[in-house]
Design goal:
40% strand; six-stranded antiparallel beta sheet; alpha/beta; globular; six-stranded parallel beta sheet; 18 strands
């Protein structure tokens, strides 16, 4: 089995878990490939040079599965690398919350054994695709959300929004989030957006600090095409795809729709989204008990 490993450059106190992972993969006779920056980090920070078959140093890598070592930010970056290559991702949490990277380090031995025995399930997650309609022909993908945001502390931005070419409204706010079901428990949740189960065929529009109290998050079908025109007094604004931000000029127009591929995520058999809600977000927990 060909297995790739991507990781964050902050693994303080996780040396033993990382070594255990490589030892377990070697014991199952896996062909191990490591993203080059992460390999350099391991060799310089921990003086650890695991035995591997090669380095991942391009955006194409024919692997059977990929392991993300880190938190949810690392998982999102790994998802961006994998993109439409149809490679399932296993997230091992060496960070903090670990909602996407939901395998704890004390589960490494069990989960690698399950991988070897093919005793796991794969969930498919919807992504967003954005296309710039004015300044440049640029495409991008997001697993969690696309965020249209003001760049600095200046006045709010204006976001004219169309659903299937029908005018919805003009958002006057610090920004607007277009979130997938996967992203509904991330940035969108922090601005009071609803939680969607991963299998929901919907997106969520959640304004960030809107100027009007009448503006609330909106759930729409995921087969809608969305179009936006963004105006800013500061002459530019930000577009963030899962935290990867870029500056665009005021007056830019974009189209956002469901991507024509899905991301595959490896989950342990018996593991459910509702368990993750309870364990990670303390969903339904009564603090009085």
């Amino acid at each position: 089995m060909k297995i790739g490993i991507f990781g964050s450059s902050y693994q303080a106190g996780k040396q033993n878990s990382i070594k255990e992972l490589f030892d377990r993969l070697k014991a199952m006779d896996a062909d191990i490939w490591v993203e080059k920056h992460f390999y350099n980090y391991l060799s310089k920070q921990f003086a650890y040079t695991p035995q591997i078959l090669g380095l991942i140093n391009s955006d194409k890598f024919p692997l059977d599965l990929v392991i993300s070592l880190g938190g949810d930010g690392t998982f999102l970056q790994t998802a961006a690398w994998v993109s439409n290559q149809n490679i399932p991702i296993l997230g091992i949490n060496t960070g903090r919350l670990g909602f996407l990277a939901d395998i704890n380090t004390d589960e490494i031995a069990d989960v690698i054994n399950e991988i070897e025995q093919k005793e796991y399930k794969i969930e498919e997650r919807t992504l967003l695709q954005i296309k710039h309609l004015t300044a440049r022909n640029q495409n991008g993908f997001a697993l969690n959300e696309v965020a249209l945001l003001k760049r600095d502390t200046s006045a709010m931005i204006s976001i004219s929004t169309y659903l299937n070419d029908d005018f919805l409204t003009e958002y006057l706010s610090d920004g607007l989030l277009i979130a997938t079901p996967t992203g509904s428990t991330a940035y969108s949740l922090s601005v009071n957006g609803p939680i969607l189960i991963p299998q929901s065929k919907n997106f969520v529009l959640s304004p960030v600090a809107p100027h009007s109290l009448n503006v609330r998050p909106l759930v729409i079908p995921d087969d809608y095409t969305l179009r936006f025109k963004v105006e800013s007094r500061s002459k530019n604004f930000l577009i963030s795809l899962d935290g990867r931000s870029e500056v665009y000029p005021s007056g830019s127009e974009f189209r956002i729709e469901k991507a024509d591929f899905k991301l595959k995520i490896i989950k342990r058999t018996g593991q459910t989204f509702y368990q993750t809600l309870r364990n990670k977000l303390y969903w339904g927990t009564d603090a009085r008990k």
